[in-house]
């Protein structure tokens, strides 16, 4: 397929869109605008309430708003969203990155800017239990080479880090993949990048050029031992790359290596073989556990024959086995930004795809294709296609969009936009590496810190960052910090932050958080009713 190459400038987008402020939190003052829209009666068939997970949203420049296209949506599609990475440098739209969990109504559930720039927030099984997983580190799209160096973290329901995992030689885990393969659920699939010297004369480079080696590793989570190590330099020919030396690293120095392959996802089957996605080769590779390439799908050397239209993908992300290896899901970006200044466009619209893959006949056909709506356009980086039974969640990478589709009909039943509706990673500053969801019944957050309280103009504001099962708050008052026992009122939890009238309160106050059955989940420290300052800890 022929592509066109464009040059773009990178303006400062600014923060002209209105923020929503919270009174109770000092480190999460303003939050990204999640605008959910629900489509049609098909949303009535959505399963249990869901959470959607996100990472690296700017708390200093964002807001939350809601817009439902029908009244069916919020009740039938309450979810937790996982938004995975919005990266910009200081002064643009993401000033304070961190992981985020939202309900599908647009309500914030949890955020932690202390983790900083992060990717791939998800909900995975480790040793038989469910945990939050996330990559944290430095680098990414704004670094030019679109890679990172950091750590893969596992967090429990208290949002505490229980495991810290890293690739080995080179040290530092890349941002693109952190997957715990099932059913063993004791290892981590990780990506890493390392510049090495290589003869690049066959592609017009130096005899002693610099090549950005794409590395995949499987690491034992508890011991840190590397169980599998594979590099692109040892297995993928240079001429398989669609990325030339003028668009993504000239290969003339260690600091400017040629990113020929750019592995961005890894999966593993029950036989121990690996499925990897190379963005810059536009190819999906099946790798034997001994390291040899079993076959290629897509790119310039595909081993498969297409038996239907629309099986192509370009600059793809998030490749996964599906349905006992008879299908593969992929996010087809359709375009790419290379080294921040060059855009390559092969398709006008980014889509999630489900491909039928016959590994005996070596044929591929299109099973389903999931289009964005109401927004439309190609994605320049990142993105995901995740299957949840009757529903498919598609995240649009450099575009801050999420759509949820009926798996069978492919129709959109829910969509959301976070922040300004920017068209690229480089213009507007908010992107979404991957989007995931989980049922509100499957995840319960139990933060260790107490509820946060503030007092403004005689009203008490309370929030409990990360607590998912608070039904109501009770305000207590007293004449001394040691005796705050007089009940003032009990109010229903109205969202991330709840307002309580302080009428009748005495000198000191505290707030208790209650579950639906009346169980006390936690209580705040004692505050002065006059100004909200802390009287005790």
From TrEMBL:
Q: Which domain of life is it from?
A: Eukaryota
One Pfam assignment: Arylsulfotran_2
Question: Which InterPro entries does the record cross-reference, listed alphabetically?
Answer: Arylsulfate_ST, ASST-like, Quinoprotein_ADH-like_sf
Can you say what this protein is called? ASST-domain-containing protein
Q: Which organism is it from?
A: Mycena alexandri
